What we know:
- It is a single chain.
- This protein is of the alpha/beta class and about 500 residues long.
- It is globular, with a radius of gyration of 26 Å.
- The model has no long low-confidence stretch (mean pLDDT about 95).
- Helix 5 (about 130-145) crosses helix 8, helix 9 crosses helix 15 (about 430-440) and helix 13 crosses helix 14.
- The protein has helices at about 35-45, 60, 75-85, 115-120, 130-145, 155-160, 165-170, 170-185, 220-235, 255-270, 275-290, 300-320, 350-360, 380-395, 430-440, 460-475, and strands spanning about 1-5, 25-30, 50-55, 65-70, 105, 210-215, 240-245, 330, 365-370, 405-410, 425, 485.
Amino acid sequence: DLQLLGIGRTGHAGFNEPGSAPNSGTRLVTLDDLTRRDASRDFGGKEYVPTKAITMGMGTIFKAHEIILMAWSGKKAPIIKKAVEGEVSSEVPATYLQLADNVEFIVDQDAAAELTRFDKPWLVKDCEWDDQLIKKAVIWLSNTLGKPILKLTDEDYNANGMAQLVTERGPSYTINIHIFNKLQHTITGWPGGKPGADDSQRPERALPEKKRAIVFSPHPDDDVISMGGTFIRLIDQGHDVHVAYQTSGNTAVWDDDVLRYVEFAIDFDRSLGKDTNQLQGVYDDMRQFIRHKQPNQPDSQEIRNVKSFIRKSEAIAGARYAGLADDHIHFQALPFYESGRTAKLSVTDKDIELTMALLQQIKPQQVFVAGDFADPNGTHLVCFNIVTESLRRLRETEAWVEDCWVWMYRGAWHEFEPYEIEMAVPLSPQEVIRKRNAIFKHQSQKDTPVFPGDDSREFWVRAEHRNRETAQQYDRLGMANYEAMEAF
């Protein structure tokens, strides 16, 4: 017989949560809090997820003739590493599978990303060294030893699994200088290119001096959360900057905010002497709907509209604060998002055609897209694919696309590793404050947002911590010490 298993981020196989014994049988178990949080999307909130489940025990699973465990996505990468490479322990019940002779792990590239053979291959085998792998390995060595890159020695390389690299590409100082310079050249205070400068060692072109740029923001706050400092700096430096809010974000507003805004509208109309009977009737229907709303039930169209208006007004306020004119603020309301549920519709040509039309209108030299695909509902990846497909189609007929550079940003959910960074934009203490104030315009997302993910901190706190951590990582590697950095 065949046993198919998944794996949870607690390390459970089946629902054998941490603490399960290797000889456990089929039984009723209490679910770990993380397991319930991960299931909350399917149940319409953690409060609706059952606290208990029936599971086959590890002992029962071992009786199968063949066991296959499957895992997909980067969210599973840390636990896959523990399950495959960690010590066998009841704290990670999936490690018991190391004891079986008839087990196979089937994982995608993202889920396998933290396994040593893929993440740090120089520790387990000889490598085909290219610049990117050398950069990753040298940064790892610097961080492991707590030494700036330029202070690494041949002995450091030889004692830490990198003898092949120093033998083939050394001596160590030659490697160190090469990687130090590559990192140094990613740093720029001119994200749109520095006018009149030699750009051969800079991440962005000097020409044209004033560029047309568009920031695609999957949700109405991703622009300022993830690249607010760079957004503001591009505008300050005179570039022709546009922002496109790809979705309405209307599933991420609390129901009581809807009632509060409609109550305001009723009072305002009444203050102008207008008849409020119709609006009062809509309000009463909304309140009745919300009172009896079921988990995962789509909102009424009126409620969805108000939630969209709330997010739209906040996005306009944030973009205006950054210095953008109203005619450079675009709301796409891509159809794939408008399901009224956390599970979205399939992408169609309409989504791509709307994006192509906007790109064709602006003809940008710079396109900024969200590259953090760890958002809880997967919207960032969908929006990224829409932009890249739109550019691919336009490239077939439009010459301007050849001069269009695409930059990926992160920050709301996670950050680039130093070896991945191609452009790092330093922020001064004053610019950090300006970015924070732009994020504050999104009042519906402050305190506790509807979809906080695994991080309980407010978005502005996460963003500042990640920006400061990026700057500190550069400092530890031997670069200049900045207040914060946004990475692309």
